[in-house]
Amino acid sequence: MNLLETPIEYLKGVGPQRGDLLRKEMNIHKYGDLINLYPNRYIDRTRYFKINQLVNSNSEVQIVGKVVHIKTIDQGKGKSRLVATFLDDTGQMELVWFQGQKWVKESLKLNTVYVIFGKVTQFGSVFNMAHPEMELLEEHKTALRSAMQPVYPSTEKLNNKGVTNKVINKMMMQLFSETHQLFSETLPASIMEELKLIPKKDALVNIHFPKNQELLAKAQFRLKFEELFFIQLQLITKNLIRKHKIKGFPFEIIGENFNDFYNNHLPFELTNAQKRVLKEIRNDLGSHAQMNRLLQGDVGSGKTIVALMCMLIAKDNGFQSCLMAPTEILANQHYNGISELAKDLNINIRILTGSTKIAQRRIIHEELENGTLDIIIGTHALLEDKVQFKNLGLAVIDEQHRFGVEQRSKLWTKSEIPPHVLVMTATPIPRTLAMSLYGDLDISVIDELPPGRKPIQTVHRFDSKRLVVWKFLKDEIAKGRQIYIVYPLIQESEKMDYKDLMDGYESISRDFPLPHYSISILHGKMKPADKDEEMKRFAEGKTNIMVATTVIEVGVNVPNASVMVIESAERFGLSQLHQLRGRVGRGAEQSYCILMTDYKLSEDSKTRMETMVRTNDGFEIAEVDLKLRGPGDIMGKQQSGVLNLQIADLVKDRDILQVARHLAVKLLKEDPSMNLPEHAKLKEVFLEISKKKSIWNYIS
Ligand code: ADP
Ligand code: MG
User: Fold this and answer.
1) How many angstroms does the Cα of residue 372 sit away from the middle of ligand 2?
2) Is 333 helix (H, G, I), strand (E, B) or coil?
3) What is the pLDDT, as a whole number, of residue 554?
4) Would the pTM count as exceeding 0.70?
5) Which percentage of the chain shows pLDDT scores above 90?
6) pLDDT exceeds 70 at position 306
7) Closest-CA residue to 281 (of 253, 243, 313, 242)
8) What are phi and psi of 123, to 5 degrees?
């Protein structure tokens, strides 16, 4: 049997109890799992501090000195702490214990030289260290340890039950002495050579017991690469399998509807990016494989018309399509926009949302089932069991990040073989991230805005400048423009320091009085019918100002609206700010985005404001966002958590990811099934990993 498969409790120093803890707390079941527990960081124990060198930096330091005095201090309520005075030749400090006081008091030797290690904090002029690690200088000199001490991930429970970092360290040493010879190389020689990687065996030794910084760096690179490389192999393989095995409806005809629209009813010339993307999609649709494509395009880049044209292809081939949007407002807008675009074509389009009346629903259900309904546009309501299609051939999903995985996959059950899927998103996902998260998805990008758009001018203003801003708004309104003012909250927050929507609405009503100005309001707690009504009034130009919460974040399209004021802008994330800004700049006029904030801003908030002012490029913004927040936040826990990375970091290790991607593509091109003898070990590991953790299916 493979020794690495040995249950963890058999390791010397573990036993049943600790084994149980490791399983429950760290998901470590076997020897092999422990080896793959990589340190979070390393402590440099080559350096010794003097007490007069200490600064209040909350960092861990190592000091040589003596305990000269020890006393118990009563803290009341039956509690006490143990305080020792610790000296070196430059000064004195305190060591403090709250737990295990009896044991410390009995075993601590006064006036004997110790090496202490731990975090220092400063109270007044006195530094202290709570629960220091202590070692007699004599022992310290002879102790076998590497200069870079690993710090392993842990949990409170592990620590409380005595499985400290030191203990895990010992387990690791024991493990290595038993298994050291067993680690065989997992990567093919060609890649090892190309990237000058160190062997797996050396990498594992040096990740746990680094001899020096340089070897540690090499070990990290090697293991990160390996991790990302196997993920890429999985994703790419999955994609290849889908293309070969999952049959799709062959949309071979580009027929009457598409051609008529393309030749006679296009309201504008398509951008080159739109044309390119259409071509990519048409190739997929005609390929006999199921399409699973992500269409990325910044706000206003013109994804809707692309979606419509795909749906026309479906119709030409005798299939129905659906378009699902995350909100009712957006579904309505798509419905209106698409109906308008297609008004001269003979196709049947309807909308289904939560507020569709029963009588209307009946008609829709019937027409979907008998096939007379060509395009259904709607919200989650489309997913209800009652909605059955005669032959759903294409599902378009707008703003994918709002839908959960299960929700999307529900569309699957609505036809015998999976329909083609086009997921549209205006949240630009940096390519590197998209590659690792959606590696099994094909990606199209509309990277060009329709011509004639003037870049939106963005400014950042403090609340103290409100009067100047209001004056500007009045000037714009006088020119016939319309304005959005967006608030982060619907009701007053407990902490009173944020502008509340209703407060704002009242004060705006005062500052922009009737009959000269008229104001709409829109928020999540309104009834759908009222929302639509308000939206309609604004869209028709009956009101000048739309005061709203983020319900208008996605998709809303009112070309005459040219100013977006975002209140308490510091409370919004970058992608949200960018989405909101995308509501303006849709017409021919110069548009503006005004970010209003408090004077006091955190560093992150400042970066967000500066980024917004500096650029309109959604991808650049997404990169900054990624740096500020990390991929987990951006993609939602579920999505990034699925990758469950042990050592690599999607943000910091993007360069490695790129290399891994490139080499994985190359390898699979040459040897798609990894059958070459030099790939034997690779395949073995690949199959093992695939069995263990299946990479999240984008739509499965
Ligand atoms: P988004 O990609 O944000 O969904 P839309 O599809 O709503 O963008 O398009 C934004 C606006 O740009 C719409 O008013 C649409 O009619 C217009 N538009 C789209 N493509 C073009 C084009 N090629 N030329 C001019 N205007 C276009
Ligand atoms: Mg859109």
Assistant:
1) 26
2) helix
3) 59
4) no
5) 51
6) yes
7) 313
8) -120, 110
Q: What is the mean pLDDT of residues 208-213?
A: 86
CA distance 363 to 105: 83
Pick among 2.60.120.10, 2.40.50.140, 3.90.1150.10, 3.30.428.10: CATH of 46-144: 2.40.50.140
Structure tokens at 203: 């990498």
Tokens of 150: 């690993």
Q: Does domain 256-285+302-425 have CATH number 3.90.226.10?
A: no
- Kindly state the helix (H) or strand (E) to which residue 606 belongs, with its residue range: helix 603-614
**304 Cα–ligand 2 center, Å:** 6
Nearest Cα to 226, choosing from 685, 669, 665? 685
What are 127's two structure tokens? 């530094």
Ligand 1 pocket, 450 CB below 6 A?
A: yes
Integer Cα distance of 466 and 298 in angstroms: 30
Helices (H) and strands (E) in the chain, counts: 25, 21
Which of 261, 268, 444, when mutated, tests ligand 1's pocket best, judged by the most ligand atoms within 8 Å of its CB? 268
**Ligand 1 pocket, residue 427 CB under 6 Å:** no
Residue 133 φ then ψ, to 5°: -80, 130
Which homologous superfamily is 457-615 in?
P-loop containing nucleotide triphosphate hydrolases (3.40.50.300)
* Alpha helices (H) in 163-269, listed in sequence order: 165-179, 189-195, 200-208, 213-245, 256-260
- Confidence band (pLDDT; 50, 70, 90) for 641? very low
Q: For 461-471, how does the pLDDT look when each residue is reduced to its tens digit (9 = 90+)?
A: 999 999 999 99
Ligand nearest to the CA of 338: 1
Could you give the CA distance from residue 334 to residue 344 in angstroms, rounded to a whole number? Answer: 17
Say whether 457-615 and 256-285+302-425 share the same fold: yes
Q: Tens digits of per-residue pLDDT, 334-370?
A: 999 999 999 999 999 999 999 899 999 999 999 999 9
Instruction: Map out the domains of the chain as residue ranges.
Output: 46-144, 256-285+302-425, 457-615
HSE of 22 in the Cβ direction (CA atoms, 13 Å)? 29
Helix (H) / strand (E) element for 548: namely strand 545-548
Q: Which two tokens stand for residue 125?
A: 């002029």
Span 227-267, pLDDT tens digits: 999 988 988 888 777 777 677 888 988 889 999 999 999 99
Inform me whether the pLDDT recorded for 664 exceeds 90: yes
**Contacts of residue 433, Cβ cutoff 8 Å, sequence gap at least 6:** 626, 631, 634, 635, 650, 654
pLDDT at 497 over 50: no
Q: How confident is the model at residue 413 (pLDDT cuts 50, 70, 90)?
A: low
Q: Which pLDDT belongs to residue 160?
A: 83
Q: Is the shortest distance between the CB of 271 and ligand 1 below 6 Å?
A: yes
Q: Which ligand 1 atom lies nearest to the CA of residue 557?
A: 7
Give yes or no for a contact between 498 and 489, defined as CB atoms under 8 angstroms apart: yes
Q: Look at ligand 1, atom 27, and give the residue with the nearest C-alpha.
A: 450
Look up residue 301 and give its amino acid: S
Residue nearest ligand 1's atom 15 by CA: 302
